[in-house]
């Protein structure tokens, strides 16, 4: 063998060996995964918290890229957002639907394409999704109703009149929180819901709604708001109308551990009671990793626990959930 051929053979051998060593030394999983997160709206602080928790959890996995879309409470936009994700070639869809029925078909379309779909908080109709993660809204509503039933009985208030400020009509939590509340108050026949209006989860919309409710129903004892921002809106309306809430009860739901969240509001004596409503953001990423990287068959339903927050435990819970 002449010198040139010998050098060529040695070069080929070294190249093969180097490539083999690099392949062995390389990480076992170099895959990248694109996740689309379709949010119903970012007008609610709770939904921004969900996005933040998803982003924070995903940051621990360099192989994950999460792209966010805000539907701004517009069903047609959210459908278009999901369609856009499908065109981008997402590997997994996380969605918190604005309303159930209008988002059902596009979620089913993603699912039929073989894309895992994690539904957060609000639900869609049918069975064409991979898993649902959220809290039990009926149970939360029931706990709120039981609190009111006991409070009215302890105060010997007859009748005990409730004003209900509901979430978005067509969103499953609004129906479930309303239905659960009615189950909870059923034990006390003196409790009556004398007015119920939608404010779509939004503080700015709940201010005029609560103003009109107070004007039309001055003899009320309880304000049951389907989330904390709407409860705060009712408090603002009461203050503007010089209504004394010291002998009444204001109830919210969400219990965010933020300076403007429900737990701090309870600590400050504004909202009387709220219920922690976990966003499920971190859990969604945990399950996404299991599905995409480990081919784990997910649970069909993951129910997150709630906690009743009153003046007695508000400070403890605020610290527990990271408030500062």
From TrEMBL:
It is found in: Cell envelope. One of its GO terms (molecular function) is carbohydrate binding. Residues 1-25 form the signal peptide. Its main location: other. It comes from the Bacteria. Residues 35-293 form the Periplasmic binding protein domain. Pfam families: Peripla_BP_4 (PF13407). One of its GO terms (cellular component) is cell envelope. InterPro entries: Peripla_BP_I (IPR028082), SBP_2_dom (IPR025997). Keywords: Signal. PANTHER family: D-ALLOSE-BINDING PERIPLASMIC PROTEIN-RELATED (PTHR46847), GALACTOFURANOSE-BINDING PROTEIN YTFQ (PTHR46847:SF3). Belongs to the bacterial solute-binding protein 2 family. This is Monosaccharide ABC transporter substrate-binding protein, CUT2 family. It comes from Flexilinea flocculi.
């Amino acid at each position: 063998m002449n010198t040139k051929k010998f050098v060529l053979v040695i070069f080929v051998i070294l190249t093969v060996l180097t490539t083999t060593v690099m392949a062995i030394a390389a990480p076992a999983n170099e895959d990248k995964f694109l996740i689309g997160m379709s949010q119903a709206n970012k007008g609610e602080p709770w939904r921004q918290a969900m996005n933040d928790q998803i982003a924070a959890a995903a940051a621990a996995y360099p192989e994950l890229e999460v792209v966010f879309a805000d539907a701004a409470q517009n069903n047609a936009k959210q459908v278009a957002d999901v369609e856009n994700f499908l065109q981008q070639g997402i590997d997994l869809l996380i969605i918190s639907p604005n309303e159930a029925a209008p988002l059902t078909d596009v979620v089913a379309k993603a699912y039929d394409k073989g894309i895992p779909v994690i539904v957060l908080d609000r639900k869609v109709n049918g069975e064409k999704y991979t898993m649902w993660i959220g809290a039990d809204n009926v149970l939360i509503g029931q706990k709120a109703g039981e609190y009111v039933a006991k409070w009215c009985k302890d105060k010997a208030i007859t009748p005990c009149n409730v004003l209900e400020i509901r979430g978005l009509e067509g969103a499953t939590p609004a129906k479930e929180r309303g239905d659960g509340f009615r189950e909870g108050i059923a034990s006390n026949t003196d409790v009556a819901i004398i007015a119920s209006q939608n404010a779509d989860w939004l503080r700015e919309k709940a201010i005029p709604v609560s103003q009109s409710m107070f004007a039309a129903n001055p003899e009320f004892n309880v304000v049951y708001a389907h989330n904390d921002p709407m409860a705060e809106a009712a408090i603002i309306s009461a203050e503007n109308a010089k209504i004394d809430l010291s002998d009444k009860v204001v109830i919210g739901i969400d219990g965010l551990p933020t300076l403007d969240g429900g737990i701090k509001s309870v600590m400050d004596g504004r909202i009387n009671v709220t219920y922690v409503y976990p966003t499920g953001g971190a859990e969604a990423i945990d399950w996404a990793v299991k599905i995409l990287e480990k081919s784990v068959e997910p649970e069909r339903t993951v129910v997150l626990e709630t906690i009743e927050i009153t003046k007695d435990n508000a400070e403890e819970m605020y610290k527990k959930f990271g408030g500062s």
